[in-house]
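Input.
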Amino acid sequence: MTPVELSRTVLRAVRRAVDEGELRVAVPERALVSVPGPGGCGDYATNIALQLARPAGEPPLRVAEILRPRLADADGVADVVVTGPGFINISLRETAPAALVEEILRRGTRYGFVEGPGVPGRSDGHAGARARSGHGDFFGQVLQLHCAHDVRAVVVTDVLARLLRSQGALVRTSCEGRPELEWEAVLGARVDAHGSVESPAPLGVGVRPVPAPADPLPLGRDAARWALLHPAGHDRPRITDEHLAQRESNPLFRVRYAHARTRALGRNAADLGFGAEPGDVRHDVAVLLADHPRVLAQAAAHRAPDRLARHLVSVADAVLPLLPAVLPRGAEKPSAAHRARLALAEAAGTVLAGGLSLLGIDAPEHL
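Output.
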């Protein structure tokens, strides 16, 4: 079950409670689902009971208890627990549903983007797209990102602009001084303006991560950007040749290797005469793929591209153990399970490619 499907499941539970006379409230247009906070449990949590308590004239805990059995009966839900003042925590069954894989493959590297009216690639309603990520606060906003005259700050600003635009924001970037020409030529990082600029946005955002201790340009575009983006903004990045190493200890290598392996499997499957067909597959990578829209939204909200970088490492580490089981072995014939596993692997590769693109890093087909 994807986050957008879970949001709809929550709304259906509210509608059932209203139809059966246990709640007197207008059914909202969307239900926010997110990763449980401190004290929570399960895969996702929703504050819908707190949202409805006042208009329903009921305590939040009472609203939560009304909704709990209706959610517990829903397909794909394993358990429902109420915690705190009325948060509903939901555990999902451990499968990668065909619907999730189909959605990722259909939307491609724009999976997780908030699409709005008139935006190419829009395939569902604006409210539904926002529910998929669990956030929608940036849609249509005009934001100004103004950064320090520092190579790391310019690279982070470039990626933050990409992340915010993926969530529907209109972003303008500027730097305190004229960026060095090499920052754009080598790293592909640019800003719209420099110097003292007047912000067109109601809220200007200052971008000042801890500067790099050494010049990252000798690492080249991909490794340098990863070195600057993978650590949190308050941490000092390490500018060393380890980011160029083609070995398992290098997180960037693992991410790009996992992507290249998924693409190679697609080519090998075609040589064997079969292709991907989404189906239900039990695998840990499914939870991470379903969580991708929320990660993009939170990386944008918290101005933290490192969250996306770490998420890509988690996706890569989760999908790599799946890959040896994708192709049939020996005289084995391709089955529905092979096609479903191939589709899941291709979906993971799509998420890795889209995430690397947002970071400004190449996702090679061969490695």
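The longest strand covers residues 77-83.
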